[in-house]
């Protein structure tokens, strides 16, 4: 068995596994930005393949997409032009001045430690113009308080791409000491290639913990809710307003940098 991140190392395969022809995540983000009067300059941290950054660019934003993966950035520049794409670590970055920082699809939860979370939020504070917005979408740590439905058995999925069938078996475990949700995913294909094992983890952040962290870094929380959002069931639809609960498995936050 080999190790590595099959999807991150192969961005076109990532897009095939997670198709988003309607650019739902970007449209939800644009809705948040418009409702709260954000300026044009947007930093998309953890931009991945660049689909959302490019959609925000098409909506009229001046977008910088940042990611740690060179493979993702190369793909983004070739397939989703418009934004400027740069390599940066979300644990600490200095990329200029922006009116909004966007961090989608649990990217923020790759800050595993308190120091890394502080580094991210301090970098956002430095990057944002007065009154700038932070928009983030992620897993909800509170969902795992007393619930085991996502932990009880591996999740099996398969899809076909370019004549090859890919099958994944994903196991989630909670590391309570580190406050992490650990994921082990084993990929197999129908062409006889050896299995590939991918290991990753997300920080389990709880709603009140997130409120405290944001306030400590000078942010006022404008929205904090479990949906509707781009990865909820049912997903967000154009015109829908945010809910008021924080109980389901996704968490959405819009926060404004306070002015002195």
TrEMBL record:
- Keyword tags: Methyltransferase, S-adenosyl-L-methionine, Transferase
**Keyword Iron in record:** no
Q: Which residue range or ranges hold the Methyltransferase domain?
A: 42-132
Q: Which InterPro entries match?
A: Methyltransf_25, SAM-dependent_MTases_sf
Q: Does the keyword Mitochondrion apply?
A: no
A GO molecular function term, named singly, is: methyltransferase activity
Checking Pfam families in the record gives:
Methyltransf_25
Q: Which GO terms describe its biological process?
A: methylation
Listed name of the protein: Methyltransferase domain-containing protein
Please report the organism this UniProt entry assigns to the protein.
Streptomyces coeruleorubidus
């Amino acid at each position: 068995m080999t190790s590595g991140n099959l999807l991150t190392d192969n961005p076109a395969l990532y897009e095939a596994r997670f198709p988003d022809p309607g650019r739902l995540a970007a449209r939800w983000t644009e809705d948040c930005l418009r409702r709260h009067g954000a300026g044009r300059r947007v930093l998309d941290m953890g931009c991945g393949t660049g689909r959302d950054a490019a959609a925000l660019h098409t909506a009229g934003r001046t977008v910088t997409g940042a990611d740690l993966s060179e493979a993702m950035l190369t793909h983004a520049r070739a397939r989703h032009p418009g934004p400027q794409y740069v390599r940066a670590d979300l644990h600490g970055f200095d990329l200029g001045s922006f009116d909004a920082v966007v961090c989608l699809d649990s990217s923020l939860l790759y800050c595993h430690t308190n120091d890394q979370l502080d580094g991210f939020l301090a970098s956002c504070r430095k990057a944002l113009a007065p009154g700038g917005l932070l928009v983030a979408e992620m897993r909800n740590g509170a969902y795992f308080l007393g619930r085991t439905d996502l932990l009880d058995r591996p999740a099996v999925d398969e899809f076909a791409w370019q004549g090859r069938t890919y099958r994944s078996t994903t196991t989630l475990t909670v590391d309570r000491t580190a406050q992490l949700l650990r994921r082990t995913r084993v990929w197999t294909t129908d062409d006889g290639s050896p299995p590939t094992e991918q290991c990753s983890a997300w920080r389990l952040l709880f709603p009140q913990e997130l409120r405290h962290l944001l306030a400590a870094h000078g942010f006022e929380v404008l929205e904090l809710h479990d949906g509707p959002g781009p990865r909820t069931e049912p997903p967000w639809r154009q015109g829908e307003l945010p809910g008021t609960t924080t109980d389901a498995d996704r968490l959405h936050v819009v926060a404004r940098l306070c002015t002195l």
